[in-house]
From TrEMBL:
Residues 37-182 form the Pseudouridine synthase RsuA/RluA-like domain. Belongs to the pseudouridine synthase RluA family. Its EC number is 5.4.99.-. The keyword Disulfide bond does not apply. Responsible for synthesis of pseudouridine from uracil. The active site is at residue 79. Keywords: Isomerase, rRNA processing, tRNA processing. InterPro entries: PsdUridine_synth_cat_dom_sf, PsdUridine_synth_RluA-like_CS, PsdUridine_synth_RluC/D, PsdUridine_synth_RsuA/RluA, RluA_PseudoU_synthase. It comes from Stappia indica. This is Pseudouridine synthase. GO terms for biological process: enzyme-directed rRNA pseudouridine synthesis; tRNA processing. Pfam families: PseudoU_synth_2.
Amino acid sequence: MSSPHQPLSRPETRPLPERVYAPDREPFLVVLHCDDDILVVDKPSGLLTVPGKDPALADCVAARALSLHPQSRIVHRLDMDTSGVLVLAMNPAAHRHLGLQFERRHVAKTYLARVAGRMAEDSGTVDLPLRCDWPNRPRQMVDQQEGRSAITHWRVLERERDATRVQLEPVTGRSHQLRVHMCAIGHPILGDPLYGDSESQQAAARLQLHAKSLTLHHPSGGEHKTFSAPSPF
């Protein structure tokens, strides 16, 4: 089922908000699962997955994991403002195995989000290609000619007075995909500092987007495993 909403080719652009990077140090690293092949953590909102170029952006999931497990390696990323399930590899073989699963879309990711407005339909699919909005980096934008394929399935979980709680299942893994797709159909994710309008941005203290679950094949034996983290909002 395709979304009935008219997509916008470019989200409203405003100067990027000035922010001081100061992620909480406690809890230091919430571990959901750990074995010889994988380390699964619950990343908090406000913490980078990997370090930024500025030394002030050195604190991140990768650095914290390395301090506890020197053999750990990042496999995929979550946006700084997104919380939830993140898997790391504990050896080179597992890193290759997991990397191929993500590359070949053999993993299943489920997100929870609260978006602005009451969505009229119960479910839908957003199929809008995306590319970087270069003059406004790191923002991304819809581009039907030069964008890369991006597909998101969504389903309403609960309608609030002025918002909707939805489950999002990305088929592809483009940068900011869920954030741009929801904004493009007129329902920006609440608390998003990059997309939407001032009202939706100020409606929540943090981005209301959480990676609830991740399903993958375990690198040793191929067992189908699902890891989940409770929503903090």
